[in-house]
């Protein structure tokens, strides 16, 4: 009986000692998963924004030459849609979506071929490129002595193929 | 006890009885040696019977044709044996020179004989079947007439001949539909035919077709369009450096995507959209048959070609 009572005491002590560690690991894993989900949503927003931007064609130029060419406001269209898509994930963001979209580096290359000054990529056709740093809330990381805000970088390029 | 048991068994047998389904191997009426495994599938697009008077078009209008054989000029209509999914009904059948309430309604017009009378033929109204029923889309005139060469041509001085010279004797004018018996007595057939050809056929001015994406824009031979976006393709024709009217056009060949219509007048564009991309490295080659009929060119058919590259916005790696 005494040995059994000793084992119970040992298990209780072990649990008390390890439980915070287990909870910390669990919280970190959950936060990491939430961060990955948030990053995926941000990337989807960037992809969609560039696709919509590419869809903004210069109809007058198309009538004149028969060749697809981006409209002059294609980058603005992409920025607007990027902001709209980020608004849907506002609770995950550590900054207003309008501010993130305004800071995003969005460039429209109306006709191809062209070379992206930022990435060095060569685009054979009209393209819209979006590069942005998006701050995401990571409160658990902050509670664990990490940064409460994690910034991820997204890069999206769309072109008619 | 035995009787009760027997009665009970008989009652159960009667209650549980059902008609037997058996296959008669010698039943020739069925037309099949085996019974059908299952009911025939339901037609997903059941045939909708057209209203009375309408029939399904199996021969499609191509062009009005005027042919000459000696002194005989024949006005006919060429068709192509194909079904465009449209329907038609007869509006009016008219004789030579007979007026019709549908004159001017046909997109291909109604030709006239050399004496000014309208040719004989039949007016048809074309329909397409939509979700709202049969919708009339156009009226077409199928000409079917003939006339003899005008004898007055023989009265005219031959080219190079003195205008003061005596004209050959000729019978009175005999313009009119068949029969042709008794025509052209005492006159050289070849001479009449040549003069008549000059009267009927204008000078062969080269016609240059053109395709554009705007009513007034530069002709294009290759265009790019976005997948799913509706585009309007305008058909033009040029005689020299001057644009001439396109009386009618039709899509002769090529994948036209999902067009609103495959034919029309020169004032209407070919409106369509493509939901499928062409195979990699290729484009949709469209050929439009244009019909022009001006005093300068006469009645002519020309083909306009354009290559369409359908593109879709896509992400890049």
Topology of helices and strands:
The complex is a heterodimer of chains A (161) and B (317).
Chain A: H1 2-54, H2 59-65, H3 74-87, H4 97-103, E1 105-109, E2 114-115, E3 122-123, E4 127-137, H5 139-143, E5 149-160
Antiparallel strand pairs in A: 1-4, 2-3, 4-5
Chain B: H1 2-15, E1 55-56, E2 59-69, E3 72-81, E4 86-94, E5 121-130, E6 133-143, E7 145-148, H2 152-155, H3 189-200, E8 207-212, E9 222-226, E10 231-239, E11 242-244, E12 248-253, E13 263-265, E14 270-272, E15 284-294, E16 298-311, E17 313-316
Parallel strand pairs in B: 9-16
Antiparallel strand pairs in B: 1-4, 2-3, 3-7, 4-5, 5-6, 8-10, 10-11, 10-14, 12-13, 12-15, 15-16
Fold and architecture overview:
The complex is a heterodimer of chains A (161) and B (317). Chain A has one domain (2-158). In chain A, 53% of the residues lie in helices and 20% in strands. Chain A contains five helices and five strands; from the N terminus they run ααααββββαβ. Chain A has helices at residues 2-54, 59-65, 74-87, 97-103, 139-143, and strands at 105-109, 114-115, 122-123, 127-137, 149-160. Chain A has a three-stranded antiparallel β-sheet. In chain A, strands 2-3 form a two-stranded antiparallel sheet. In chain A, strand 2 and strand 3 form a beta hairpin. In chain A, helix 1 (2-54) packs antiparallel against helix 3 and helix 3 runs antiparallel to helix 4. In chain B, 9% of the residues lie in helices and 38% in strands. Chain B contains three helices and 17 strands. The longest helix of chain B has 14 residues, at 2-15. Residues 28-39, 41-47 and 150-189 of chain B have low confidence and may be disordered. Chains A and B meet through helix 1, helix 2 and strand 5 of A and strand 9 and strand 17 of B. Strand 5 (149-160) of chain A pairs antiparallel with strand 17 (313-316) of chain B, so a sheet runs across the interface.
């Amino acid at each position: 009986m005494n040995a059994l009572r000793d084992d119970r005491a040992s298990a209780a002590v072990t649990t008390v000692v390890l439980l915070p560690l287990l909870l910390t690991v669990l919280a970190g894993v959950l936060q990491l998963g939430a961060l990955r989900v948030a990053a995926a949503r941000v990337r989807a927003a960037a992809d969609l924004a560039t696709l919509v931007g590419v869809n903004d064609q210069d109809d007058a130029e198309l009538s004149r030459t028969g060749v697809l060419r981006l409209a002059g406001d294609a980058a603005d269209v992409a920025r607007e849609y990027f902001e709209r898509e980020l608004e849907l994930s506002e609770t995950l963001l550590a900054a207003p979506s309008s501010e993130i979209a305004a800071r995003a580096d969005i460039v429209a290359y109306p006709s191809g071929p062209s070379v992206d000054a930022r990435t060095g990529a060569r685009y054979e056709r009209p393209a819209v490129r979006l590069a942005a740093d998006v701050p995401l809330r990571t409160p658990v990381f902050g509670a664990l002595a990490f940064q409460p805000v994690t910034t991820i970088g997204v890069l999206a390029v769309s072109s008619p193929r | 006890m035995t009787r009760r048991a027997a009665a009970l068994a008989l009652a159960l047998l009667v209650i549980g009885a059902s008609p037997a389904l058996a296959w008669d191997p010698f039943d020739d009426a069925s037309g099949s040696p085996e019974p059908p495994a299952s009911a025939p599938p339901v037609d997903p697009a059941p045939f909708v019977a057209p209203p009375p008077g309408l029939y399904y078009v199996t021969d499609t209008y191509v062009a009005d044709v005027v042919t000459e054989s000696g002194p005989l000029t024949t006005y006919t209509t060429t068709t192509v044996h194909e079904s465009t999914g449209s329907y038609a009904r007869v509006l009016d059948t008219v004789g030579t020179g007979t007026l019709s309430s549908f004159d001017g309604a046909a997109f291909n017009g109604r030709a006239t004989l050399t004496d000014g009378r309208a040719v004989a033929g039949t007016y048809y109204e074309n329909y397409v079947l939509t979700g709202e029923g049969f919708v009339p889309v156009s009226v077409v005139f199928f000409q079917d007439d003939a006339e003899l060469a005008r004898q007055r041509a023989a009265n005219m001085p031959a080219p190079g001949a003195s205008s003061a010279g005596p004209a050959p004797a000729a019978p009175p004018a005999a313009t009119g539909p068949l029969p042709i018996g008794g025509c052209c007595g005492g006159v050289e057939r070849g001479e009449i035919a040549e003069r008549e050809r000059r009267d009927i056929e204008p000078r062969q001015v080269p016609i240059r077709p053109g395709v554009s994406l705007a009513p007034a824009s530069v002709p294009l031979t290759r265009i790019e369009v976005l997948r799913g976006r509706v585009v309007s393709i305008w058909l033009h024709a040029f005689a020299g450096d001057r644009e001439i009217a396109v009386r009618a056009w039709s899509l002769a060949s090529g994948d036209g995507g999902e067009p609103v219509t495959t034919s029309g007048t020169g004032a209407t564009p070919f409106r369509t959209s493509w939901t499928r991309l062409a195979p990699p490295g290729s484009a949709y080659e469209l050929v439009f048959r244009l019909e022009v009929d001006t005093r300068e060119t006469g009645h002519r058919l020309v083909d306009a070609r354009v290559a369409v590259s359908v593109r879709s916005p896509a992400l890049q790696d």
